[in-house]
Amino acid sequence: MKTGPPSLPIIGHLHMVGPIPHQAFHRISSSYGPIIHLRLGSSSLVVVNTAEGARDVYKTSELAFADRPQSYASRKFAYGSAGFAFAPYGPYWKFVKKLCMSELLGGRTLDALSPIRRQERLRLVEALRDSARRGRELNVSEELNKVTNNVIIRMVTGMASHGVEGGRVGEARELAKGVAETIGAFNASDFIWVLNGFDVQGLKRRIDNVHKRFDALMERIIQRKEEERRIGGGGERSKDLLDIMLDVLEDDKAEVRLTRENIKGLVLDIFTAGSDTTAASLEWALSELINNPSIQKKARQEIDSVIGIGRLVEESDIPNLPYLQAIVKETLRLHPPAPLATRIATQDAKILGHDVPAHTFVFVNVWSINKDPNHWPDPLEFSPARFLNLAESLDVRGQHYHYVPFGSGRRSCPGASLALNILHVTLALLIQCFEWEAGVGENGERRRLDMIEGIGLTVPREHPIICVPKVRLDPFPSF
Where does it reside (predicted)? Predict the structure, then answer.
């Protein structure tokens, strides 16, 4: 395959990728076509930028692309291949996928843990309300990150996000952030083989430090949980996700016996995939609503007409709020939480008629596909109405290859239901309880937030949302 720009000795095309790879690949694709071949150091890479190419990866040759490439960070944080996200396709991966879908992230478990999500949403609303009353500017991005992390950590471990256990939850939040930052950072030694034995960026040392701290924290959390289980004897209390994993670890008849490393790897997968991606999506959704006040107003009118002002939005209300759902879908289109789906060819295959040899890295550029004018009129415009006007309903779970925010096929995200749950209800509460704007400029006109992407695995905003929310519905009037 020769569809790509000329490369340089040793580094190949690394100098063209930059800190935000999906944007760089999009630019290169505009000159060299929908599928491009690059060399990153000593590694061969194919980038797919169209829905038709994505179909070949996700469906036509799915088994050939069922594995994900490993990096120094992913091997470290996944305890080799003990987790789920980077485990090779095979019996263990199939077992854990089934465990995730039926037990860990299945409907029954999510329903049982819904009180945790509600408590953390109310804490978010209370924090925003208190800041609004004082007229103080607030780092809203930080609060959104905190609520999503608290929800995931509490659902996994059962620890409270305040009081005595709040310190551990805060430490887990900090470490989850460190994992996302380091695993999403460019590590030259992953691509240039002559650097394998060196740490020229100091990144390996940072990865090792974060992993060591995370491992120590997880060991304390697991020991605490094991002690709880010995004292409580199981009982009828609501099980958290760590309980479910320990049940499997202790089950002599389980199809696959989990180890302690498996549990730590799975917990880290859930921490990073479930919290940071959801926080980034909430951040982008709110940014779009601030910059598009007419859409914000229409969403609020829908909520008021369906829910009224006598109570707060609940999870059960979401099916009755189609415009809110369209806002979430449009946010995931313009700002996909995982802009690049990474694969590695385990055998020779074809994409769009091009030969792709085994061991080639294959990236599906979801970010670029979501902005393809062949599928999306006015692709750069934030227009939730596009999802209401479609002749065929567009699902977010990978059935339409020009819209795959959670991937598609065997490697699609098992946590999509939880992420969508948190996204919809939290955003609905932000709209229902507050009015959002970025302030007024010197010319008296409403300010707009910049929409610059930052660096990281989940593509957060480069600059946080800083504003003073205006209370319109106070759920805590007596305080």
Answer: Membrane
- Residue 174 tokens read as 């900090």
Least reliable range by pLDDT among 141-155, 200-214, 438-452: 438-452
Query: Which residues are part of a known binding site?
Result: 413
The Cα–Cα gap between 27 and 25 comes to 5
Which tokens belong to 470? 């205006």
| Count of beta carbons in the 10 Å neighbourhood of residue 288 | 20
Q: Which two tokens stand for residue 247?
A: 């049940």
pLDDT tens by residue, 382-406: 999 999 987 677 888 888 999 999 9
153: closest CA among 167, 142, 139, 134? 167
- Mean pLDDT over each residue of the chain, to the nearest integer: 92
The CATH number of the domain holding residue 185 is 1.10.630.10
Confidence of residue 163 (pLDDT cuts 50, 70, 90): low
Q: Which residues of 274-286 are buried (b: 16+ CB within 10 A; e: fewer)?
A: bbbbbbbbbbbbb
Measured distance CA(129)–CA(467) in Å, rounded: 13
- C-beta separation of 10 from 17 below 8 A: no
SS3 452: coil
Work out whether the CA dihedral 288, 293, 298, 302 comes out positive or negative: positive
Please indicate, yes or no, if residue 24 is contained in any of the structural domains.
no
CB burial of residue 117 (10 Å; 0-12, 13-18, 19+): buried
Asked if the model's pLDDT at residue 235 lies above 60, the reply is no
Residues that constitute the known binding site for heme = 413
Q: Following CA atoms 212, 217, 219, 223 in sequence, which dihedral angle do they give, to the nearest 10 degrees?
A: 170
Question: Does 195 reside within a domain?
Answer: yes
State phi, psi for 314 to the nearest 5 degrees: -120, 170
Which stretch of DSSP H or E encloses residue 241? helix 241-250
In this structure, is residue 283 part of a structural domain?
A: yes
158 vs 165 pLDDT, higher one: 158
Q: Whole-structure pTM over 0.85, yes or no?
A: yes
Task: Give the total residue count for the chain.
Answer: 479
Rounded to whole angstroms, the Cα distance separating 15 from 28 reads 12
pLDDT tens per residue across span 410-467: 999 999 999 999 999 999 999 999 999 987 766 767 789 999 999 887 889 999 999 9
Judge whether 327 and 295 are in contact, CB under 8 Å: yes
Please give the tally of structural domains in the chain: 1
How many angstroms separate the Cα of 312 from the Cα of each of 130, 425, 468?
17, 10, 21
pLDDT digits (tens, 9 = 90+) for 356-380: 999 999 999 999 999 999 999 999 9
Residues 420 and 397: beta-carbon distance below 8 Å: no
Task: Evaluate whether residue 373 is within a structural domain.
Answer: no
Domain of 286 in residue numbering reads as 104-339+378-471
Is the pLDDT confidence value at 90 over 70?
Answer: yes
Looking at residue 257, the DSSP 8-state letter turns out to be P
pLDDT at 479: 43
